[in-house]
Amino acid sequence: MKVYLTVFAFLQSLPSVHSSRLAKSAKDQEDKEERRVPVVIQVADLAKCSDTFYEHPAPDGDAQVLPLQIDVDRVFDVQWNPPGHPQLCASWLQTPFGDRWSDSDEPADLPGHYTFIKYHRNGKLGLVREKEDGTICSVFREVRFVSVSDDVLMMNGDPGPEDEAYGVKGGGYGTLVKGSNISSGNEDGCWDTTTPEESGLTGEQWLMRNFEVADTPQLLAW
C-alpha cells in the first residue's frame, strides 16, 4: 500500500510541475513581447551629439527608435565620389560630422553604438547614438540614402533642399555605413553599388538586414 501511495503522490505532482513550466514559458514570452514594444521619443526633446556644425531643423512630432545596434567603427564621415553609383569610392573615414567630428587622422573613440529613428510624420530616418547609460543623442536629424551594395550603405546626413548638388539630390554630409559582411574600421575602399530604388531595398530594410537586434532594452530618459 505504501508503494502505491508513493507513486500516486508522484503522479499528482506532475500536473503542477507541467503547469509551472508552462507558466514560466508564457512569462518568458510576455517578457520578450514587452521588450519588442517600440521605443518612441519626442523629437523636440532629443539633444544633439555635437554643436559644431549647422543645425538642421528637426521634424515635428515623435519618432520610433529602430531595433538596431551598429558599432561606432562602422559609420563614418567620408570623402567620396557623388553620386556614389555604379561605383562608390570612400576615403579619409572619420567620425560622422554630427558626432564630435574633427580633422584628426583617426576617428573619435565614442561610447555606445549607433541606431536610427523613424519619424512617424513622414517615415524618414535620422541617425542617433545610444550611449552606454541608455540615453541617446542626435547625429543627423535626417538622412537620405543615395547608394547601396551588399557590403555598404551610402547616405547624406542632414541633406538640403530637393535640388541637384553635384549630381546628388540635396547634398549633405556624406556618411558611409559598413555592413556586417565586411570588416569594421576606417580603411578606404571602393564598392560596386546601385541606387536603393534599383536594388529593391530601402535604406531601412538594408539596416535591419545587417544590424537588427531581437531584444531592445528600454532606453532611459534622453
Summarize the structure.
Helices cover 21% and strands 31% of the residues.
Approximate helicity band: 10-25%
Tell me the series of helices and strands, N- to C-terminal: HEEEEEEEEEEEEEEHH
**Overall geometric form:** globular
Count of strand segments = 14
Verbal overview:
This protein has helices at residues 2-35, 196-199, 203-211, and strands at 39-42, 62-65, 70-71, 75-80, 87-94, 113-119, 125-130, 136-140, 143-148, 152-157, 164-165, 168-169, 173-178, 189-192. It is of the alpha+beta class and 222 residues long. It has one domain (39-211). Strands 1, 2, 3, 6, 7 and 8 form a six-stranded antiparallel beta sheet that branches. A six-stranded antiparallel beta sheet has the order 9-10-13-4-5-14, covered by helices on one side. Strands 11-12 form a two-stranded antiparallel sheet. Residues 1-8 and 14-26 have low confidence and may be disordered.
Question: Tags for this entry?
Answer:
single chain, six-stranded antiparallel beta sheet, about 30% strand, disordered N terminus, globular, 14 strands, about 220 residues, alpha+beta
